[in-house]
Amino acid sequence: MLSVIIPVFNNENTIESAIARVNSIPVEKEIIVVNDSSSDKTPVILSNLSFDSLKVIHHATNRGRDAVVHTGIANAAGEYIAIHDAQLKCDPACYPRLEEALKNQGADIVLGVSSRRFSLGSSLCVLLLNLLSGTRLKGWFSSCWVARRECLLRLSCDFNGDNAFRVLKEALKGKLRIIEVTI
Q1: 3-class DSSP state of 89
Q2: Parallel, antiparallel or unpaired: strands 141-148 and 54-58
Q3: Is the pLDDT at 162 greater than 60, yes or no?
Q4: How many independent structural domains does the chain possess?
Q5: Which helix (H) or strand (E) holds 16?
Q6: Which of 18, 98, 114, 175 makes an SS bond possible with 146, Cβ 3.0 to 4.6 Å?
C-alpha cells in the first residue's frame, strides 16, 4: 500500500484539489494530511472531508514542515511513502509508476525524472552530484518520488524545503539503492 503524506499549513486554496487528485490515482493507498496548526480555513475544509482512505492529523501548535512529515511517516501504514505538496507541484498520476518500480526493481527510492530538457545549471548539478556521490543519475529529479517506509525511518534527514534533494543526499550517505523513472 502507498501512504501519501500531505503536509499542510494555510493551504485553504489548494488542499481540497490536492486531496482529490491524490484520491483519484488507481492504487491501494491511504492519504495522511498533517495540518501544522493552520490559521486560515484549512482546518474547516479538512473537517468536512471524510472517506475511508483519509487520515487527518492536526498539530496543536506550528512545529514546521520537518515535524509534519515525521508525524505523517510515524502514522503511515503503507510499505511505500510519497510526500505530496499541497501546492500541487507534483502530479500524483506518476505515483503508480514509481511504486511499481520500487516493487519490481528492488530499489529503496524511486525518483521521478522530468522528460523535458534540463537547463545547463541542472545538468551541471547532476554531473557534480554524480561525481561526488558515485551515482549515475541521468537527470534532475522532480518533486515526485516514492520510498520504502523502512528506509525513510532509517534516514536522519530534515524534510524542510526541497525534501527530494535532502532525502536523496541522506539516501546516498546511507548507501540506499536509488533509481530513476521518467515521468
Answers
A1: coil
A2: unpaired
A3: no
A4: 1
A5: helix 15-23
A6: 98
Question: 140 phi and psi, to 5 degrees?
Answer: -75, 130
What's at 84, amino acid-wise? H
Identify which has the larger pLDDT, 119 or 175.
175
Domain extent, residue 169, equals 2-182
* Percentage of the chain exceeding pLDDT 90: 49
Q: pLDDT at residue 117 above 60? A: no
SS3 readout for 126-169: HHHHHHHHCCCCCCCEEEEEEEEHHHHHHCCCCCCCCHHHHHHH
User: Does residue 173 surpass a pLDDT of 80?
Assistant: no
Q: What CATH number should be reported for the domain holding residue 90?
A: 3.90.550.10
Closest CA to 83 of 168, 10, 172: 168
Average pLDDT score over residue span 47-72: 92
Question: How many Cα atoms within 13 Å fall on the side-chain side of residue 142?
Answer: 23
134: left (phi over 0), alpha (psi -120 to 50) or beta: left
Instruction: Please list, in sequence order, all residues whose beta carbon lies within 8 angstroms of the beta carbon of residue 10, skipping any fewer than 6 positions away.
Output: 38, 39, 40, 42
Cell digits of residue 136 = 549515475
Spatial contact of 110 and 102, defined as CB atoms under 8 Å apart: yes
Report the distance separating Cα 67 and Cα 49, nearest Å: 23
Per-residue pLDDT averaged across 84-99, rounded? 88
